[in-house]
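User: Last request for today: this protein with coenzyme A, please.
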Amino acid sequence: MNVIFTKLTSAANVVFRPLATGDLDSFRAHLLRLNKQDRYSRFEGSVADTVVADYAEYSLRTACSTAYGAFIDGALVGVGEVFFFGELPEIALSVDREFRRQGIGRRLMECVLQDAGKFGFDSITFHCLADNCGVRTLAKNFGVKFQFDGSELIGTIWTNQELERC
Ligand SMILES: CC(C)(COP(=O)(O)OP(=O)(O)OC[C@H]1O[C@@H](n2cnc3c(N)ncnc32)[C@H](O)[C@@H]1OP(=O)(O)O)[C@@H](O)C(=O)NCCC(=O)NCCS
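Assistant: Here's the final one, the structure of the complex with coenzyme A:
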């Protein structure tokens, strides 16, 4: 298993590694911990707990996706997912509130970009609500190109950039 150990500016020690089906309970719990606003941002709409729980299982079990987790003291605090079923790989990110603004989302983005690159894709896409400042700012650091689609933004990020290894 590919495991890296990174020291964040906050001095928290975070392990980034691919998630396996054995991480399902932690992944489900992480997604269910997102508050109403974050859940709305992550799924671009209101979704019930049962839908979130089913989604977690689908995401980890389908052969069309990979996911990376950020762990602090063994606890899953953030996830980056990349789905390979469209024309371009599509990514999604989430980080527990208390661990935000410490670079975890950025590292997860690097992990999923590298994964997409390994599979031969030169770019990835993601969808977010136009008012999602967090992911918009994060993506800008990766040279994102945005396309507006109503209240939604579609971002494209190239994989052939200098990335810290995952
Ligand atoms: C988007 C999200 C994953 C960012 O995670 P994070 O760990 O806080 O991100 P980072 O700490 O790596 O931040 C990366 C950059 O974005 C900036 N940023 C992050 N959140 C921000 C916010 N709410 N407002 C403004 N800037 C923000 C950081 O300052 C940093 O910029 P810098 O490197 O220039 O300082 C997190 O806010 C989240 O889980 N949101 C809810 C789910 C969601 O909206 N997912 C995206 C849709 S798929």
